[in-house]
């Protein structure tokens, strides 16, 4: 079982990562977001930052659909994310090893080539 502290520790261990000040967690590399807290929106209610759910960049729609269909207990999406290569991950349902893989993959897809070459 992982939590927001694990996301922060994993993201900050990667080269070139910047933490953006927010209510939850928000990490970027090369000016591009790769993992952040889920800003849940419900009709008629103010936005609520969920630090128990991470939004992860996954590269493309095919990967997004594969994750959503293959592991629905772990991943979900919301209407505001339609058309974007992003999934939400329930942190309480993911192990730290898998979270490490997910955060690292998200970072790798968003990082400038000179940073990814350093970690290859």
Question: Which key terms come to mind for this protein?
Answer:
single chain, 120 residues, alpha+beta, six-stranded antiparallel sheet, 4 helices
Q: Would you write up a description of this structure?
A:
The protein is of the alpha+beta class and 120 residues long. The protein has four helices and six strands. The protein has a six-stranded antiparallel beta sheet. A hairpin with a 6-residue loop joins β1 and β2 (26-29). α1 crosses α3 (96-110). 27% of the residues are buried. The model has no long low-confidence stretch (mean pLDDT 94).
Unreliable runs:
none
Sequence of strands across the biggest β-sheet: 1-2-3-4-6-5
| Biggest sheet character | 6 strands, antiparallel
- From the structure provided, what is the oligomeric state, counting identical versus distinct chains? single chain
